[in-house]
Amino acid sequence: MITIAGAGLAGLACALELARRGAQVRVHEQGHTPGDSSVARYAGGMLAPWCERESAEEEVITLGAQAADWWAEVTPVTRRGTLVVTPPRDRAALQSFARRTRGFCSVDRAEIGRLEPALAGRFAQGLFFEQEAHLDPRSALRDLTAKVQELGGEIIYGAPAPARVTLNCTGMASPVKGLRPVRGEMAVLHCPDVQITRTLRLLHPRMPLYLVPRGDGVYMIGGTMIESSSTRPPTVRSLTEMLSAAFTLHPGFAEASVLETGAGLRPAFADNLPRLIRQDGTLYLNGLYRHGFLLAPALAAQAADLLIPEKNHEPDRQRATA
Amino acid sequence: MLIYGSEIHSRLLLGTAQYPSPAILSEAIRASGCEIITVSLRRETADGSGAGFWELLRDTGTRILPNTAGCHSVQEAVTTAQMAREVFGTNWIKLEVIGHSDTLQPNVFGLVEAARILCADGFQVFPYTTDDLVVGEKLIEAGCDLLMPWGAPIGSGQGLRNPDALRAMRAHFPDVPLIVDAGIGRPSDAAQAMELGMDAVLLNTAIAQAGDPIGMARAMALAIQAGQAGFVADPMERRDMAVPSTPILGLAELA
């Protein structure tokens, strides 16, 4: 039996990967529903390794390129790519974004209008990352839970994990050294008047923004990264900047209703890359930073590679101690 | 270079925002050889504590100069400075009182007022100011030992927009440490500031947002050393006319 602490994104992805390989898994979750206490609830759900490469290490591509395929077996994945645009004044930002990324084609005003009719005439230049995708984080967490249970995985809610587990995936609550919280803020808008079908990124020196369509006129926006462990709700400053950036994308967002705002703490190591750490007989998966949905599949596979051979040796050990 | 009684060897001061990761930031600090880094204390970080990030900064072994970035009023700046003193255990404060949110130009009236309050409270103030001479005098009157004139608006990377004003500042304040803060985009900008006789350069975005921040940190450090050495070596004056650099004496007579 493999025991996992934390039924957040990392814990559930590992549970699925282990269950698929025939392991018996039990996940312990303090909250009462799937992903209850998981920061992934506030994620954008972007599977956008080529865009992320702008400020992240090459590993986001090597580990994240297959993520959309992995998720497509679990939950609906929208494969419509990412469109990156910038206000005319900051066109230089688009050029440097292009220099630091790959896997895109440059699009002009007409092509932007063809891709997203709602943006027709609004932006003269953009970058289109066709291979990128997105998903809905909360549905994904639910679907992931269901898949784990289908394969016989057990999830125990509402109680702390036992003192000793095989795999610890408890994010900021984990005792792993070198972790720091990076706060992110988001808002969910309802705006049936604006129809956007793929993830948009607005490059802006002061308020970079991403907007992810959730369907039925619902959009998630986010983009802040603050070195802080504060869990209070988003500040007026952050919200003002995010909402005015949304307005820059399309003035129709002025009429949107704000359905929800939220903030979460993303666990990160100094290089902003995730790690698997063995410590006192427990394996820790942590540091997914802002790349949870993107990197969880690859890290879950790595965790399973480490744990399954150990499990195969278990009968030997039992014999030895018997 | 003597800064509030401390001997500082590196003439590069580094801001710590906007790097791709803290690991790259640490490497950039090391590559630049800087001894002083600035850290902005947002209300958010104070509220929840940015302890994880600060620990990483402390590990770099540099001196921390907290700043009041983003403060728009005297009261806000003073409160932030007091919080910073508690959090970082230092009397140093880089004082910013922003007057205009588009240009991030300092509000020099608020700046002088806040400097007066903080100096009286025992702070050692590093004021982010314009290149105005009278404002500089008022800041020194208020108790500041040094001045940090802007080169160009924060984060603009435009280089020194008014080198003549900085030259005038150098002449007007011969014994006051002058640190160009904001506006540096390229190594040549930093070298130019040092050639004008500035004592040091503070920059952030030019390194943090470079494609290779660590390489740019190294380049900036070299440029600052070159500019400083050039200033000390007393450069020749500019002339309108060409002057042959080969001597006439001994020229062959070809007749």
Q: What are its keywords?
A:
A: 322 residues; alpha/beta; D-Amino Acid Oxidase, Chain A, domain 2; 2 domains; 6-stranded mixed beta sheet; 26% strand; disordered C terminus; B: 255 residues; 5-stranded parallel beta sheet; 15% strand
Shape of chain A: globular
Biggest interface goes to: A-B, 24 and 21 residues
| Rg over C-alpha atoms of chain A, rounded to the nearest angstrom | 20 Å
CATH architecture of the largest domain in chain A: 3-Layer(bba) Sandwich
Mean pLDDT of chain B: 90
Instruction: Tally the beta strands of chain A.
Output: 17
Number of H- or I-type helical stretches of chain A: 9
Mean pLDDT of chain A: 90
Ends apart, CA distance between termini of chain A: 18 Å
Based on secondary structure, the structural category of chain B is: alpha/beta
Approximately how much helix is present in the residues of chain A?
A: 25-40%
- Biggest sheet, spatial arrangement of strands of chain B: 5-4-3-10-9
Report strand % of chain A. 25-35%
What sort of overall outline of chain B do the alpha carbons produce when their principal axes are compared? globular
Return residue spans of chain B where pLDDT drops below 50 for at least 5 consecutive residues.
Answer: none
SSE ordering of chain B: EEEHEHHEHEHEHEHEHEHH
Give me the CATH fold name of the largest domain in chain A.
FAD/NAD(P)-binding domain
DSSP strand count of chain B: 10
Name of the CATH superfamily of the largest domain in chain A:
FAD/NAD(P)-binding domain
Helix percent band of chain B: 40-55%
